[in-house]
Amino acid sequence: MKMWAGRFSKELDEGVNDFNSSISFDHVMFREDIEGSMAHAAMLGAQKIIPQEDADALVAELGKIREELESGTLTFDPNAEDIHMFIEAVLTERLGDVGKRLHTARSRNDQVALDLRMYLKNRIAEIRELLRELLAVLIEKAEQNTDTILPGYTHLQIAQPVTFAHHLMAYAQMFARDDGRLAGCYGRMDAMPLGSGALAATTYPIDRERAAKQLGFSKITENSLDGVSDRDFCIELAAALSLIMTHLSRLSEEIVLWCSSEYKFVELDDAFATGSSIMPQKKNPDVAELVRGKTGRVNGNLMALLTVMKGLPLAYNKDMQEDKEAIFDSVETVKLCLKTMSPMLRTMRENPGTMRKAAAKGFINATDCADYLTKKGMPFRDAYRITGQLVAKCIERNETLETLPLSEYKAFSNLFEEDLYRAIDLAVCVGQRNIPGGPAPEQVKRQIAELKSRMGFPAKAD
Ligand code: ARG
Questions:
Q1: N or C: which end of the chain has fewer CB within 10 A?
Q2: What CA–CA distances, in Å, run from 370 to 149, 366, 393, 437?
Q3: Is the model's pTM score more than 0.85?
């Protein structure tokens, strides 16, 4: 029998019961539901809304239920409507009238709004910890590669030389911003909605601040209608998670490319790559590809949440039960991807030799050749045109800018001297990009130090 059966003359249709039920996915919030109920019961007792001994009995029994659910001696009833109804039903079965007092001055609408906020706050803390691990790996690899020349690309065409450290640090900057987004999202989510009731708060003299304090919230929600019907905290988190996946996906795509025999910039550890069922020579970057692939579902979850909410009148509507599977899936997917990516990156071996060889192809120092002329007084546009002609000459003669004889250079401009060859040396090209934000080793070291201090990491690698 349903708790709300009083008004009804028939049992709920079995199919509708299944359709309506959310316990198959909201049971994961049982700890938060119990903790929230404990705080609510304690507050009801302290405010003398229910007898103190009833409050104490509720808190004690809720503690037992939590233990039994943790150990598996109590299992979730798949026919229960949701986790909230399930726990209240167990309480009432065990405590009779005392159990029935728990829901005084509360609605499932503010209860679910509370549970979901608490659950997601806990998950955000875990995801931020995983992001820190990923950042630590990226920074560690960057520290080892500040002198490792890597071709930089635009349009996937070789463009200008950078270093492997600079490239990795670009991702570190993205993930650090992701961490900041999670922190901001956490701050806005950190408002305690209990007391909003079904939609119009309650007539009982409850103490919302007390519950907020006990449950670790920094503030309470300010509007009961908003408290029960806002899900922007879910959407915002889903968006932040989509961005994490987008960044992981771009990095994954590069790893896939870098592992190919065309690039060979890195080699994955055997423990993080897979073989083919038919082609014995293969070593596939499945992990990176799966991370890239899973980005699709996380982005899909964001769209699902936005679409569920877009036409809902205030306040609670059952549509909102659809929030959970979407946001839970995004949370779990991101956690799984971060947990897999960090050790894969840590064990990945870079190949500075092939990176450098690739950088030596494709006239990557053409800009530096033009800059050489500009620094000797030629307007940049003229220097650009001459360098273009030099590149054409090299292609015609099957040479590179490094191997083309000075006499050929001089045919284009008398400004060229022997020191040209030093100016277009790759290490010099990188080293001279020595302004804040640039790839010069000195600047990348500064960049690493800045990020470490921003993230509260120890300054020296031990
Ligand atoms: N399982 C429901 C949900 O997730 C809990 C709130 C139900 N409230 C209601 N008025 N039916 O949204």
A1: C
A2: 20, 6, 15, 22
A3: yes
